[in-house]
Amino acid sequence: MTKHSDLNSAAIAAHCATGASHVAIEVVDETGSTNADLLARCATLAGPTLRIAGQQTAGRGRAGRPWVSQADASLMFSLAWRFKGPLHQLVGLPLAVGVALAESMTALGVPVQLKWPNDLLKDGHKLAGILVETQQAQGNDSGGVWAVIGCGINLLMPDALERQIGRSVSAVPWLAQMERNTLVAALLSRLAGVLAEFDDTGFAPFAERWNLLHAWQGQHVKILDNGQLLQQGVAAGVDHLGRLLLRTDGGLQEIMSGDVSLRLSGE
Question: The BPL/LPL catalytic domain covers which part of the protein (predicted)?
Fold first, then answer.
């Protein structure tokens, strides 16, 4: 199996599709957070930049939650991309990123589904998470908004780590065994194409693709905020802005992503 220490920027670039050839690729053995690294450098980046680390000691997910990383068991990277903006046009970006990752993995023989707003599921368990952070372009930039897109993928979850995070995560032997530079190149190639399209069109053209991958379509779900029930109903996919559509006794409700959590009603 290729180890994280064998990740190589030139090897990744060699396997990338033409549409990703303009992305700078940085590989480091260890860092605190690849998202934090790129956010601190947005003003000086020459263009799209992928930063990938073998291990992150301060990785994080939504709402500042920690993301547990263990070398060779997970793949963690961040991609800085400058959009034309303004900021409100990036609504739905995490969902479009989810579409890119899910379609990439399906093409690699690992079919996955999407959980609103930013998780990938394999056999009902969390396989990957997405964190998008933004920063207004400044300095010598010609306007627009930088988005730093962080992705954490559980390639293999040892029993000890599984107990540490307190939940079961499906191991994906095929992804874990795949040559790591080839895997990163496949994900980056699809991401670059999706982000370029999203910059021109917004989320609307991706809504149907997301709904085809929706893990909980037609299932009873509940919306929680810090453990408090806000809403419940039947999940009916997402609309053109990436809002979750919920069929309730009071009619169709549109839920905008925030720090709320989505759970199946029986959980």
Answer: 11-199
